[in-house]
Design a protein that fits this description.
single chain; 410 residues; mainly alpha; 19 helices
Length: 410
């Protein structure tokens, strides 16, 4: 059964993408994909997994799609067009010598992350279509009611249909503009898994690992895109610390307190190699630079021996590429490690008027920590209280209560 589930996990996205490409209807493609998997669950345990499971699923799904279209008068015209296309395809050479399904997931990546869709819908649709999560699972990932998520997914599909968003890979001239949107969707999924915005757990490892799986697929599909390598490197290097990031009770463990022996050295090695790829052959991208920063952290024996001058220099590069207050905040924290808490706090104070940082939990925590290091306890306590008021997950709130108590008692 595990073998069958592994096949489904690997083939579902490819099958769905190929069916969407062929029939131009996401709902129909999802329905017949489910039907084909249901048929496989019935036959494969008895007959065994076929030598080419993807082709078996595709044949079954295509047959079921045609049956559905024949029963639906509204699709009669479309069926006629599809039959003409099928006759043409029958006389065309096979997609590859091995007869495997062509991998059309790349088209689905760009469709799910199309800029015409609302930002909140892109990640949901990506998880539903490319990661293969059910609607209840996507709802749990975003911590919203199932009904809310179902409406969101239906809305996204309707937008694709009504706006006639094409199921295609952008041309060479469009790729630089469209690819960042795809990368951002995957990164947003990972970020929610790395530090949940709410809920009982600090980390959502299932979500983080799903984002890594999607990044690996994208890397295979776009091997020459250095920012894809950079994104995958960043996710691997950050995820390598997952086991050391929480204590026995699920509370956060800060970087300087983590047991680095628990970091995943295989992921660090793989991620570090990808950093070289991401930063070679042209100007650096935002994900490649972030990955390089993560690699410096992962390769250091401890916080004290981290190459902070190099970290700050990389943040200077990143700030030039992405002049956002969040990047400036991270740079200020690195400057505090290089030059001392006073220097870091001065930079944070300069950012105090930034609208995006008002009520931003990491900013308030960084400021509280630096004030505490400087011995300015009343101000530190006030900053911790402000951070506690906007903390998302319960482990973060527990952690901040402890830090607040430590400041108040000192």
């Amino acid at each position: 059964m595990r073998e069958v589930e592994a096949v489904f996990r690997e083939e579902r996205g490819r099958l769905l993408a190929a069916l969407v490409r062929r029939f131009g209807d996401l709902d129909l493609a999802e329905e017949v994909t489910s039907d084909a998997i249901e048929a496989a669950l019935k036959h494969w345990p008895v007959e065994g997994v076929p030598p080419k499971p993807g082709a078996w699923l595709m044949t079954t799904a295509r047959r079921k799609a045609v049956d559905r279209l024949r029963r639906d008068q509204a699709f009669a015209a479309r069926l006629a067009i599809l039959q003409v296309e099928a006759e043409r395809a029958a006389h065309a050479p096979p997609a590859d010598a091995d007869g495997e399904l062509p991998d059309e997931r790349l088209q689905l990546f760009f469709t799910c992350a199309h800029p015409a869709l609302p930002a909140e819908d892109r990640g949901a649709l990506t998880l539903r279509c490319l990661a293969g999560l059910t609607t209840p699972e996507v709802a749990r990932a975003y911590l919203v009611p199932v009904q809310t998520m179902a409406k969101r997914i239906v809305r996204a599909k309707k937008k694709i249909r009504e706006a006639r968003i094409p199921f295609r890979v952008p041309g060479v001239d469009e790729l630089p503009e469209r690819l960042p949107g795809v990368l951002q969707v995957i990164y947003s999924i990972f970020t929610e898994g790395y530090a949940a915005s709410s809920g009982p757990d600090l980390q959502r490892l299932d979500l983080a690992e799903e984002a890594i799986r999607l990044a690996r697929i994208l890397r295979r599909l776009l091997p020459s895109e250095r920012e894809v390598a950079g994104l995958l490197a960043l996710l691997l290097l950050v995820h390598a610390r997952r086991d050391a990031r929480t204590g026995p009770g699920g509370e956060p463990v800060l970087l300087d307190e983590q047991d680095r022996r628990r970091w995943d050295r295989d992921l660090i090695e793989e991620g570090s190699a990808l950093v070289v790829t991401a930063l070679s052959g042209g100007p650096p991208g935002v994900y490649g630079v972030q990955a390089a920063i993560a690699a410096l952290h992962d390769e250091a024996a401890d916080l004290a021996t981290t190459d902070w001058p190099q970290v700050v220099a990389l943040y200077d590069v990143l700030l030039a590429l992405d002049p956002s207050p969040v990047v400036a905040l991270n740079r200020a924290a690195a400057v505090a490690m290089r030059d001392g808490p006073e220097a870091g706090l001065a930079l944070l104070d300069e950012l105090a008027g930034e609208p995006r940082l008002r009520g931003y939990h990491p900013y308030l925590v960084a400021r509280a920590d630096l004030l505490h290091r400087l011995g300015r306890r009343p101000e530190a306590a006030a900053a911790y209280r402000a951070a506690l008021g906007v903390a998302g997950s319960e482990p973060e709130r527990v952690h901040l209560r402890r830090r607040l108590a430590a400041v108040e008692e000192s």
